[in-house]
Amino acid sequence: MRSWRNFSRSAPAVLACLFLGQGCALLFPDRTAPKSQSYTVAPPGTPWHKLAVGDDPSSTDAMKADMAFENPDTGAIISLNSICRKYNKLSLESLTENLVRGVADRKTVERKEVELDGEKALDTTFEGTVDDVLLNLRTVVMIKGDCTYDFIHVTVPKRQIGHPQFFDAFLNSFHTT
To answer: Is 0.85 topped by the overall pTM?
Structure first.
């Protein structure tokens, strides 16, 4: 297996792989599927840093996530993506499975309904591989109004030593306006 350092250098590729599950709409957005402009969320604190994604001119990937952050100490990634008027009629289960379609050898570790910003959301933890690296992935998918919101926390098991509080704080800071 490749080391987590190789994985952490390919963070944009991993995020693109995960978001490919939603179809090509994230890579080739159309005017009928805009991003949500009506939410706030607090970025994770130190040591996390923002990754260039979407329309950012320094972005090295084609993925159209709203935002993504990386912990350079562990290689963990937290991301948020929104898309409106495109997938809001699908079930949370279908959206979740589509989101991780690019993860090989995936198995569901835990799945539970939670409440996020006053709406029902599906919180699912998976194990699987991307680019021959074993990963833990936690996804939270929510539909609010006509928008779908996907939150992802990707960790490398042998590097992540129990830091779910960053992702939980990120989720809890999310509010639509």
So the answer is: no
